[in-house]
């Protein structure tokens, strides 16, 4: 199992478009994935689950991935967070 602490740095946080990008990205991997924020843990491959976190800009979230391609999934998600969900353009 891989655990990564990530900071939401895009301007609007995990809003619908950013959440859709995250879920779409994770759906390409076979591993299980969860996100945790403020004590609530949700399936990171579920749009509704991630939206329920209501994680705004500056929020800390913990990504947990487990499975055969967990490392690749964690790297891909970290890159998505680092590029601010491609919303700076």
Q: Any overview of this molecule?
A:
The chain has 89 residues and is an alpha+beta fold. It has helices at 16-26, 47-52, 70-82, and strands at 2-7, 32-37, 40-43, 60-66. The chain has a 4-stranded antiparallel sheet with strand order 1-4-2-3.
What's the short version?
The protein has helices spanning 16-26, 47-52, 70-82; strands spanning 2-7, 32-37, 40-43, 60-66.
What is the strand and helix layout of this fold?
Blueprint: E1 2-7, H1 16-26, E2 32-37, E3 40-43, H2 47-52, E4 60-66, H3 70-82
Descriptive tags:
Histidine-containing Protein, Chain: A, 26% strand, alpha+beta, 4 strands, 4-stranded antiparallel beta sheet
CATH topology: Histidine-containing Protein, Chain: A
CATH architecture: 2-Layer Sandwich
The gross shape turns out to be globular
**By helix and strand content, what is the structural category?**
alpha+beta
Oligomer: single chain
Tally the helices: 3
Strand order of the largest sheet: 1-4-2-3
Rg over C-alpha atoms, rounded to the nearest angstrom: 12 Å
Order of helices and strands: EHEEHEH
Estimate the helix proportion, in percent: 25-40%
The major pleated sheet works out as: 4 strands, antiparallel
The CATH homologous superfamily is named: HPr-like
Gap between N and C termini, in Å? Answer: 34 Å
What CATH first level would be assigned?
A: Alpha Beta
Average pLDDT works out at: 96
Strand residue percentage: 25-35%
Number of domains: 1
User: How many DSSP E strands?
Assistant: 4
Low-confidence runs of at least 5 consecutive residues: none
């Amino acid at each position: 199992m891989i655990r990564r602490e990530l900071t939401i740095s895009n301007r609007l946080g995990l809003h619908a478009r950013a959440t859709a990008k995250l879920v779409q990205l994770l759906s390409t991997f076979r591993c299980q994935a969860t996100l945790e924020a403020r004590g609530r843990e949700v399936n990171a491959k579920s749009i509704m689950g991630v939206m329920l976190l209501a994680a705004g800009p500056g929020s800390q979230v913990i990504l947990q991935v487990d499975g055969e391609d967990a490392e690749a999934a964690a790297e891909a998600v970290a890159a998505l967070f680092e590029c601010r969900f491609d919303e700076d353009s």
